[in-house]
Amino acid sequence: MMGALLVHLAAGLLFGGGLAVSGMVDPAKVTNFLDVAGKWDPTLAFVMGAAVAVTFVGYRLAFARGRPLIADRFELPTQASIDGRLVGGAAVFGVGWGLIGFCPGPALTSLGLGSGGTWVFAIAMVAGMIAARCVPASAKRAR
Q1: Is the CB of residue 16 less than 8 Å from the CB of residue 109?
Q2: What distance in Å separates the CA atoms of residue 18 and residue 128, rounded to the nearest whole number?
Q3: How many Cβ atoms from other residues are within 10 Å of residue 12's Cβ?
Q4: Which of 90, 91, 94, 100 minimizes the C-alpha distance to 120?
Q5: pTM above the 0.85 mark?
Q6: Helical H runs in the chain?
Q7: Counting CB atoms within 10 angstroms of each CB, which of 7, 44, 121, 139 has the fewest?
Q8: How far apart are CA 60 and CA 58, in angstroms?
Q9: What are the pLDDT digits (tens) for 8-37?
Q10: DSSP character for 50?
């Protein structure tokens, strides 16, 4: 149990450190990347490219082992279809990311760095996560 906790802590620190070093904790980095007609900043494309390359290699290495280091088996999604909930969630995520410049990882990292304005985003994000869990339950009851 303690070993798994330390692995999770190390992974979180590595992820948060990478976000901080890459500048992803600065919402202006994202909004400037999306502002192709103004102060366009292409560096985010390199951050995304590096993340995709590391993820590709990491998944190859992990799945080649046959099982995870700190679990009995891999927990993979079972739903393969694209439904309205997936598309709607992706749309809300994309609009929020474009307008505010934060997604969950950088927002939580910014909280750790003491960015005060991030608290409003984090509270709204948690409220949205709670609301998303409530919607399917209410939809099932309405049937």
Answers
A1: yes
A2: 26
A3: 14
A4: 100
A5: no
A6: 2-22, 27-34, 43-65, 84-100, 104-112, 118-142
A7: 139
A8: 5
A9: 899 999 988 888 888 888 888 888 888 889
A10: H
